[in-house]
Structures are given as C-alpha cells and as structure tokens.
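REVIEWER CHECKLIST
Item 1: Sequence provided? yes
Item 2: Single chain? yes
Item 3: Sequence as submitted:
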Amino acid sequence: KGSLRLYPGATELLLAQADQMDGSTGIDHLRRLAALMQRNPDLPVVQSAWIEWSYQGDAASVVERLRPVRAQFESLGLRGNARLLLLREVDRLCDIDEPGAIAAAAGHARELLPCVAEGLSAKAYPPQAWCILARAFERAGDAALAGECLTLAHDWIMERALPKVPPARRDAFLQRNPVNRRVLAAMAQRPSV
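Item 4: Structure as written out by the authors:
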C-alpha cells in the first residue's frame, strides 16, 4: 500500500507491463502514468517510466516533455540515460512531418551514431538503436548513413550476438525477435554491392 502512494508512476508502469505480458496493450495504465507525469512535472526521474511513456501520445508533446528530463539526466551525470532519452526523441521526431523535426532527428542521430557501438545504455538493444537512427537518416534523405546503420545492426546481430546464442536457439533469436527480423529483412532487400 505504501509503495502505491510513494511511487504511483512506477506502479502504473508495472501494471501496464503486466497487461502487455497478458496480451493487452496496457494503454489505460500508460495514460494514467502520462496524466500523473503531466500533473507532477517534478515527479522523481524514473527512466523506465519516461521511456514507456514516450511511445504514446502526440509526438511533438512527447519530444517537448522529454527534453527537460534529458537535461536533468545530463546535469546528474547520467549520460547513458540521457542518450537513451535522446534516442526516444529521435524516434518520435521521425513521427512529425515537418522539415524542422526531420532535420533535428537527423542531427541527433549523427550525435548518437558513435555512441551506439560504445554502448548507448544497458537498456538499449544496439540493433534497435541503429534502426531508429537509420529511420532518421532515411527521413532526412541520407540513404548512405541509413544503410550504414542497418549494416552496423546486421553485423552486431550476426557477429557479436549470434555466436553467443546456443545453436538450438539461433533461429528463434533471428526470426522471433522483431528487431532482428526487421534488420535481416531490410538487409535482404538491399542491392548487393
């Protein structure tokens, strides 16, 4: 009971994740989380809550709200968390059909590109991060950098991760993981050089 009063945002996030594991969207809990965060802008920074929240709602509003949270992470020296929120900003900026948003997404993507290989954050799956960056570059008309990101994602999957997966589980790793499946499909569609 006490934890519900102290951490209502974290509780809503956990309830949303439980609903998602049960096959529903968890959207009601995420909406309550968004309302809590909107009413309480000084809510203690809970990275997972902000990340989960960032997947829903109006993209421009989400980007506007993530910026000060990211600045707070940076001021606390939490570079991985700040970079992860910047990645979420890039993803949501790609949802906005305005030249300024597309240019901002590509600019942030350039800033993040070297960070992904170094380890963006323990909560970021590198191929997914590269896919988000590829989307930003593609939207900005930079097919070369988008292709480079897909190649980096593919190489990471095949050369770094796959050898560590037990042989009996490799097919599942490649085909049942939606990010891996998208990367492999995108690479298969690229013209060979």
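Item 5: Key structural point noted by reviewer: The chain has eleven helices and no strands.
Item 6: Recommendation: ____
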